[in-house]
Amino acid sequence: MKTNQVELLAPAGNMAALHAAVAGGADAVYLGLETFNARRGADNFTLETLREACDFAHLRGVSIYVTMNTIILPDEVGEALECVRQAYRAGADGLIVQDIGLAAEISRTLPEASLHLSTQMNTHNLAGVRAAARLGAERITLAREVSLDEIALLCAAAAEEGMEVEVFAHGALCVCYSGQCFMSSMIGGRSANRGMCAQACRLPYELQNKALQKSLPSPGDHLLSPQDLCTVDRVDDLVAAGVASLKIEGRMKSPEYVFAVTSVYRKALDAALAKFALTSGTDSVGGDLGRPSSSEDDLRCEGGSRPAPTEGAAVEGAAIADADRDRLTDAFSRGFTTAYLDGKRGNDIMSYQRPNNRGLFLGRVDEVRDGAAYLKSAHALTEGDVLEFWTRKGNGTLTLGPVRTDKKGRYHLPLEGKTRTVKTGDRVFRVRSAEAAFEDDAREPRVSLVGTATLHIGEPLRMEFHPAAEADIEGAPRTTLAVARRLQAAFPDGVSGVAEGAPVEAARTRAVSFDDVAAHIDRLGNTPYQLVNLTIDMDDGVGIGFSALHGVRAAALDVLTEVLTAEGHGRTLPRTIPREPLPAARPTGCRVAVTVTNPACARAAKRAGAHIIYVPALNYRRGEAVIAGQKNAAAEQAGYPKGCIPIMPVADHEAVGGAREAVVDADVWKYAAEGKPLLAESLGAMERASEEGALLDVGSHVPITNQLSLAVASEFGAARVWLSPELTLRQIEEVAKDAPVELGVLLIGAQELMVTEHCMLMSQGPCDENCAECPRRKSPHVLKDRKGYEFPVVTDAMGRSHLYNAVELDIASSMPELLAAGISSYMVDATLMNAEETAHAVGRAIRALHVAQNDGNAIAKMPNTTSGHLYRGVS
User: Please, what is the angle between helix 47-59 and helix 15-24, to 10°?
Assistant: First the structure.
């Protein structure tokens, strides 16, 4: 159900949240089934309830998108494809996909379905847009880390490819680039790429300088916890940039949250679209709406007010009032930020002190006496509100009983339990508003109808209903208008439901009156409709039973309902033609590879016998040698040996606006050349390498977890693929069977857990973001958790941080099994090693390989190491 308006896309974790989203004014809703979705902790939907959801939505002109945004394991491919087919058959309007193999197969076998690429695919540059087009996508959800300038550039590029762009507008921010986080997976086996993230990023950590053996100061303990994204005052900018859809995060959130946030963004988007129509004189979306500017991200700061718009700002944004911002804060807030949209990546986007809902700031305790606190607040409180006191001894909550105030107008708040420690001056927040409770009604919002009834004696009783146009309901609630607008756009030629009954007879006794007929036709209480206009063409002296009126009315509405929901009904599934298998690769031998970040380790690895040496392209730059996690100029005196292969980074933005690539003069693609090898760590890098004729290896940051995704990598030109670290030995064996490319796994070294746009070293104090001269990068740093585990942190030349596992991976003792499974390449990641350690690790890998090849034996397992997921699958 496409319109020329920018879409407001809301989340739904269950049926009540779906109703809330539509009641709030969503144009589309995204939801997940019980499997293959990135929020498996939500209630989610079955295929049966999905059909019900599609009918509910389609009746109101709302689209339904089904999330399939997880990695697909080898034995799940058939089930995942069947799930896609049945979701489409049930009426889904779009499928949101992470796995590149599943995406390509949907395009091949079910071209009727609308394919959307998830933000989990990490699309943030022009090559990523072209890769999406190559996979057959109709829409891309961009990475959250892009700025407004980048969004505009990528929207224009997507439009040239016939695709739409969707961006996140509100909700939780992951600190890691989406699709690149292995922290929850490696620590506890709960994979974020399987919808089971345990949110390890919201736990407390301590930043330590290992060289100085001391903890570093920070504003709080939650060093990986960002604030929440809020773009409510930048909606017109996003519209001007060319986005097709504004996405609200929150499938794990309550219906109250969904309704409140969707309602506010409906208001903001309507204002932006109205402004555009006024300034452009058209109904289409695009052009320059003006760019509002603000010096602060937190929309409602304690004790403060929002700055006035600067000259040239979008005055239409005044449609959003402080009450609306308060409503967003009431719904859920860790503090609000526009973050990367405005090129911000420092401490001001982080929620160091609190990783969960802080709520709406009400004020400070004015007085404590007689077992009660007295609070003066500009915000009205109601019975059932949940308040939280922030004290020096921790936080305590209170559920408000009957509201009482003293003669000064201060709220009387009885203190008990943990709240007994409350003192004068302590801060008070509302973390749940009783007034915000959502009353679920599956009939709401109702579709406004215009009806006609014809009662001519001797002719069949006839009724016709059609959806009201916006002009018919001027002044109606915003959501009611949105339903009318969507249906008008979905059915530009009009649509109606018509039914006829038995011929109308003359009255034998008392004739029915005009008012009688109108009253009985308008009895729509148990339907999803409401009559806003009824025309009755009736002869004098008509006699008719009211049951006849009811019956024809019901029949006409049934016809209308079927027409309005027909798009999701009666879909047939095309016959699936098996994919032509690609020729199996025949590796000529086994190879030990090493990743190094400095020339000293590269030369040590080469002397130790490494067959392949990979170097991150950023570490090729003069002055960017990193040894054991810290910058070290002495390590680059000799230079890199010949034949090193550059690694294209996970994050590689276009050099526009405030992107780091525009600030730091470091074009990583100058190391790429036709006929020369490189390793790509993103789908965009795969596309660009393919276009430039480079010899392509694919890194483990592109999640290759099944034979379909392996085939796609091969079709992009890959000769070698480094498999996802989330595969078990058995799954590796399944993927490796008749693989069209050589396969590799990480054998020894630190597993990277996160890549973040925010520099984790910033928490210790102000930063000028001059990364080339940063003294902090010259010392090794770790994040220490509550159990004492230390996670190494390395910040690269762009100022992006890389977090590594506290326990080193070593599966060299499993070499015989890996050989038998079909693995021919073995990686040593020496990022955190010095030259001596690198030589030892490479030597150990080569010895393990030789021992396994010569007599099938295994070397001993190293103590204090982990085997990752090799024998322990992800959940």
Answer: 20
Q: Which of 130, 135, 126, 125 is nearest to 95 (CA)?
A: 135
User: 12: Cβ–Cβ under 8 A, 6 or more apart, which residues?
Assistant: 18, 20, 21, 29, 30, 31, 53, 251, 258
CB atoms within 10 A of CB 855: 8
Tokens for 862?
């190293």
Q: What is the Cα–Cα distance from 842 to 418, expressed in whole angstroms? A: 57
Task: Give the other-Cβ count within 10 Å of 561's Cβ.
Answer: 19
- CA atoms within a 13 Å half-sphere pointing along the CA-CB vector of 417: 10
3-state secondary structure 733-759: HHHHCCCCCEEEEEEEECCEEEEECCC
Looking at the chain, how many residues does it have?
Answer: 875
Instruction: List the strands of the sheet with 427-432, edge to edge.
Output: 394-399, 386-391, 427-432, 360-369, 372-375, 411-414
Please say whether the beta carbons of 585 and 742 come within 8 A.
Answer: yes
Cα–Cα distance between 758 and 224 in angstroms, integer?
9
Report which DSSP code applies to 634: G
CA distance between the termini of the chain: 35
Q: Which residues of 715-754 are buried (b: 16+ CB within 10 A; e: fewer)?
A: ebbbebbbbbbbbbbebbbbbbeebbbbbbbbbbbbbbbb
277: Cβ contacts below 8 Å, ≥ 6 apart:
283
- Chunked into runs of 10 residues, the chain (875 residues) has average pLDDT values of 76 97 98 83 88 97 96 96 96 97 97 97 98 98 98 98 98 96 94 92 96 94 97 96 97 95 97 86 44 35 32 46 95 96 96 93 95 95 95 90 95 91 95 93 96 97 97 93 94 96 94 96 96 97 96 98 94 92 94 97 98 97 92 85 97 95 93 97 98 98 97 98 98 97 98 98 95 95 97 97 98 98 98 97 98 96 96 91
Residue 535's pLDDT is 97
Give just the sign of the alpha carbon dihedral 596, 803, 871, 745.
Answer: negative
Continuous segment of H or E residues that includes residue 94: strand 94-97
Gap between the Cα atoms of 597 and 747, Å rounded? 18
Q: Could you give the CA distance from residue 728 to residue 724 in angstroms, rounded to a whole number?
A: 10
DSSP-based three-state secondary structure for 503? strand
- The C-alpha atoms of residue 663 and residue 756 are separated, in whole angstroms, by 17
Dihedral angle over CA of 334, 340, 342, 345, nearest 10: 80
The torsion of the CA quartet 333, 335, 337, 339, rounded to 10 degrees, works out to -100
Q: Judging by DSSP bridges, how do beta strands 752-756 and 781-784 pair with one another?
A: unpaired
SS3 247: strand
Global confidence as pTM? 0.93
The C-alpha R_g of the chain, in whole angstroms, comes to: 31
Quick check: 249 and 13 in contact, CB under 8 A?
A: no
Q: How far apart are CA 496 and CA 364, in angstroms?
A: 58
Q: Alpha-carbon distance 216 to 219, whole Å?
A: 10
Q: Tell which residue, 662, 852, 644, 607, has the closest CA to residue 747.
A: 852
Residue among 114, 116, 111, 64 at smallest CA distance from 90: 64
Q: Please check whether residue 224 is in contact with residue 759, taking contact to mean a CB–CB distance below 8 angstroms.
A: no
Which of 256, 262, 200, 202 has its CA nearest to residue 232?
Answer: 262
